[in-house]
């Protein structure tokens, strides 16, 4: 979407303190974080890319070891991974 102000959400609820410059910054931040999430997904979940650990500490990303998780946490995590995997491949 090129112009977020024309989105239905903003037409019904106009942002009172969001400037055009703020919208650009918000959009850029979203794109960068989405890119990083996809990189991590490809590296650690489906393992199609080599794992790059540079910058993780700065982003406060913690790798979860599934062996140390409780069974209920494992099931929940696996469901989320499958849901994310399907969503990424359908888009």
Detailed description of the structure:
By secondary structure, this protein is mainly α. The protein has one domain (4-90). It has helices at residues 8-12, 20-45, 56-59, 71-90. The longest helix is centred in the middle third of the chain and has 26 residues, at 20-45. The model has no long low-confidence stretch (mean pLDDT 76).
**Which class of secondary structure composition applies to the elements?**
mainly alpha
Series of H and E elements: HHHH
Overall residue-averaged pLDDT value: 76
Oligomeric state of the chains present here:
single chain
Number of helices: 4
Fraction of helical residues: 55-70%
Globally, the shape reads elongated
Strand content: under 5%
Could you list some keywords that capture this structure?
91 residues
Question: Which SSEs are present, and which pair or pack?
Answer:
Layout: H1 8-12, H2 20-45, H3 56-59, H4 71-90
């Amino acid at each position: 979407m090129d112009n977020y102000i024309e989105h239905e959400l903003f037409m019904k609820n106009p942002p009172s303190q969001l400037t055009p410059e703020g919208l650009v910054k918000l959009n850029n931040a979203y794109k960068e974080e989405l890119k990083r999430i996809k990189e991590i997904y490809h590296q650690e979940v489906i393992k199609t890319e080599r794992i790059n650990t540079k910058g993780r500490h700065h982003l406060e990303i913690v790798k979860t070891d599934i062996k140390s998780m409780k069974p209920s946490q494992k099931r929940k995590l696996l469901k989320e991974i499958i849901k994310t995997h399907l969503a990424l491949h359908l888009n």
